[in-house]
Amino acid sequence: MATYAVQYTYTDDAARVATFRPEHREHLAELHREGTLLLSGPLGGAPGALLIVEAESEDAALAALDGDPFQRERVIVDRSVREWTVVIGQLPGA
To answer: From CA 11, how far away is CA 78, in angstroms rounded?
Structure first.
């Protein structure tokens, strides 16, 4: 398993984001409980978020997030993923 940083970019439609946020957060909480999602939270500036995921590959990291209601409802307008190697500090559960 490797660690991946996934960046979401959201639509500028704040009302749409707010409508689906509770379902989105519950979905991410479930991924966290199962150990797939280690950390997540919104980024400052333009609407978006950073998610730290444990997966076998970049494709698997994105696939793990495909069930996100924000993805289904097109709140996410762009996603990028990069493998992330932690050098200093420790991730939860590591």
So the answer is: 9
